[in-house]
Amino acid sequence: MKRKLLGTLLSVTMAVSLLAGCGSNGGSTPAANNNAGGNDAAPANTEAAAEPAAPAEAEAPAATAGGSKIGISMPTQSLERWNRDGAYLNDQFKAAGYETILTFSDNDSGRQVNDIQNMLADGVDLLIVAAIDGEALNTAMNEAADANVPVISYDRLILNDAVSYYVSFDNYTVGKLQGEFIVDQLDLENAGDSVYNLEITAGDPADNNAGYFYHGAIDVLNPYIESGTLNVVSDQIDFDTVATAQWNTDTALERAQNILSSYYADGTQLDVWLCSNDSTALGVAQAITSDYAGSNSVLITGQDGDEANLKNIVDGIQTMTVYKNVSNEAVVTLSLAQAIINGDTVDASLTDSFDIDCAYDTESYETSAGNKCPSFLLVPNVITKDNLQDLVDTGLYTMGEDGYLSATN
Predict the structure, then answer these.
(1) Distance (Å, rounded) from C-alpha 277 to C-alpha 147?
(2) Which residues of the chain have pLDDT under 70?
């Protein structure tokens, strides 16, 4: 799929039919996900903002909020970030005067289908769904289309044309920031004959975002891999090999231990481990702490700003995380939902009301082959030990006397 520069996308003025959204209400079966394996052509992206923005204020309650019911379906409570997302969404919509139904589906796609069907039976006016598996919700999505209930695909794209809009962060840029951080930290541009050993842990193949994260990083790092400056000792590079089902920490830990025992037990130095998110980085960090024979500090990337990982950053175990301000994602979702329910036009001009760095994109994401999904993409930020105060400044974290951060929600 082609991607345009997000700066250009901000000027897009094409209006989108509200209930048609990403496609017809027929809820046609989507084509196979072509993102998890990645695209041949790398999309262009914006650069990250200098620091994470403080949470934006939600707009005043819409006049038609009274009586409107919003269904919010989150994947699981076993990952810290989904607890935050669910709480922020629920709080924002209640504050705006909406009735809400919030569910967590324990990483069980069948249960998520059932949760959504129950919401439809309960008469919700709009659905917000963060999918466990972007290809497993056809039944529920088709029923939403039949009931003329618009669907906002939240953070993870649902591959069904019943989806009206997609709200997420610029997922390719998340990986791009991780790759650029590695290039800068190792000074790969000036590496000369030096060789640095790299290993890779990617995310859940069922999560449409995982391919974007992976390819954003690999597209940055691949020139150095091809030149030999970066050496993947295990030779485990392709997405399917390095993917981690359900972003599971223990799965990432076990694979990392196997790699360390198979390729690094003889004292071979490991320099960097690219991890797509914090839950996988937590497993990799545990393996390196307990099983790595080398004495050097290994650069470890992550994403999400989970408390345990922020502690590891303070302790020098993890090097960075890409932070996504999910309270801002909730604000954008609320504004979009209000526009849909009120029958307002949804186009690029809606981003002017956010006071958040967000782009309107009609080219990057498809719910089925050739069927573009209008998307609102927020900008992520790099967090290291040196700028942890930026998280505190958002009001979403506090810092203790020991320097560790705790989420306020």
Answers:
(1) 36
(2) 1-66, 409
